[in-house]
């Protein structure tokens, strides 16, 4: 248990150098930047597991909450970067990750060579590649490690983590990833984690759209959508998406969870990546259009299960339990 929090990462301090028992085992200090819906519970799980965490967010109440759970609150990204040898980022999208890691006063300006940056945000895979190149020039390592599972799985530490980067770097942080996730799979080189996440986001969006179409058909035909869900969830149409999202639709609970605006961000990243690969992805394109329509109506803060409202508006039918 003791050795769990020590590993051959970073530079040894004087105590470690002088004590033979510590040879090759240096103290691990984790930095966590981005304490939103996902980052907060992920950082808290690291603290619960006994890791030493320094945290930062531009939103003070988020930082205060994680500090109250035992983290050291950093006053800047540079301060955090100077004292941590593993730095996890959980930020909205590519521009924020670029600013935090490569910008003025960013991680790159203060982190020591040998530091490992683990970007767990869902961003454009090309940006992951670009950031890693700049970090490598300073001797800083990087993995892209986006997650799937949403807030509930972030809270219970059972996220699915998809990783891109070097195998030896992955092996150094795997135990830490497994505190936050139920699985952590190295998919390939840098950028592969985010390519996998884009595939995941296509599959989730199209599943929610398919669920909405099925339930709207049942509702219009006068068949209770709750009974339909109960009847089909154990069959071939059953899925994690159906189990998580159908109850939200039936309860008319569109509190996020995963906001439509974040799914739009991911589907825009899908669009850019598909274009650069010369691919046509009709279902992903359609799902993006439907979500953009809901955004125009001011519904972008709703959970993505709220996609059902697009179908409801289109057809003048509501998916509700029969009284
Ligand atoms: P969020 O908006 O709730 O949190 C992002 C946090 O980053 C906020 O606390 C914000 O203040 C902070 N931040 C933004 N810019 C910053 C900066 N320059 N410096 C420091 N902090 C900054 O988003 P979230 O839902 O936690 O999602 C984070 C990432 O995880 C996104 O890429 C998202 O797509 C992905 N994701 C989210 C879910 C989900 O269900 N919410 C599921 C899987 C993956």
Assess the beta-strand content as a share of residues.
5-15%
Unreliable sequence segments? 6-25
Structural class: alpha/beta
Q: Please, what is the average pLDDT?
A: 93
Give the % helix: 40-55%
Q: How is the main sheet built?
A: 6 strands, parallel
Report how far apart the termini are.
55 Å
Shape: elongated
Main sheet: strand order: 5-4-3-6-7-8
Catalogue the ligands: nicotinamide-adenine-dinucleotide
User: Given the structure, what is the number of helices?
Assistant: 15
Q: What is the C-alpha radius of gyration, as a whole number of Å? A: 21 Å
Number of strands: 11
Report the order of strands and helices: EHEEHEHEHEHHEHEEHEHEHHHHHH
Description:
With 323 residues, this protein is α/β, with parallel strands linked by helices. It is 51% helix and 14% strand. The chain contains 15 helices and eleven strands. It has helices at 14-18, 39-48, 60-68, 77-83, 94-102, 107-110, 125-136, 150-156, 167-180, 192-220, 225-232, 240-250, 260-277, 282-296, 308-315; strands at residues 6-7, 26-27, 29-33, 52-56, 72-73, 86-89, 116-119, 141-144, 147-148, 159-164, 181-188. The chain has a six-stranded parallel sheet, sandwiched between helices. A three-stranded mixed sheet has the order 9-10-11. The protein has a two-stranded antiparallel sheet with strand order 1-2. Strand 7, helix 7 (125-136) and strand 8 form a beta-alpha-beta unit. The protein is elongated and about 65 Å long. Bound molecules: nicotinamide-adenine-dinucleotide (NAD). Nicotinamide-adenine-dinucleotide binds next to helix 5, strand 9 and helix 8.
């Amino acid at each position: 248990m003791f050795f769990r929090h020590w590993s051959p990462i970073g530079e040894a301090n004087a105590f470690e150098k002088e004590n033979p028992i510590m040879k090759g085992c240096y103290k691990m200090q984790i930095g966590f930047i981005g304490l939103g819906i996902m980052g907060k519970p992920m950082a808290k799980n690291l603290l619960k597991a006994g890791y030493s965490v320094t945290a930062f967010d531009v939103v003070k109440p988020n930082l205060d909450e994680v500090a109250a759970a035992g983290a050291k609150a950093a006053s800047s990204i540079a301060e955090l970067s100077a004292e941590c040898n593993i730095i996890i980022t959980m930020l909205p999208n590519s521009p924020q990750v670029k600013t935090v890691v490569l910008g003025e006063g960013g991680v790159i300006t203060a982190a020591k060579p040998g530091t490992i940056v683990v970007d767990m945000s869902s961003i454009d895979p090309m940006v992951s590649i670009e950031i890693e190149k700049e970090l490598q020039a300073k001797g800083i390592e990087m993995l892209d490690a986006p997650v799937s599972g949403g807030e509930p799985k972030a809270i219970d530490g059972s996220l699915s983590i998809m990783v891109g980067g070097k195998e030896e770097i992955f092996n150094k942080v795997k135990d830490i990833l497994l505190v936050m996730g139920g699985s952590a799979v190295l998919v390939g080189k840098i950028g592969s984690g985010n390519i996998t996440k884009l595939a995941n986001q296509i599959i989730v969006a199209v599943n929610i759209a398919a669920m909405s179409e099925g339930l709207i058909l049942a509702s219009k035909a006068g068949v209770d959508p709750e009974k339909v869900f109960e009847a089909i969830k154990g069959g071939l149409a059953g899925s994690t998406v159906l189990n998580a999202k159908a109850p939200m639709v039936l309860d008319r609970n569109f509190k996020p969870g995963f906001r439509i605006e974040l799914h739009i961000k991911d589907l825009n990243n899908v669009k850019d990546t598909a274009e650069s690969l010369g691919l046509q992805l009709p279902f992903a394109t359609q799902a993006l259009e439907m979500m953009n329509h809901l955004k125009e109506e001011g519904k972008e803060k709703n959970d993505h299960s709220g996609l059902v409202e697009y179908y409801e508006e289109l057809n003048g039918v509501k998916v509700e339990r029969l009284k």
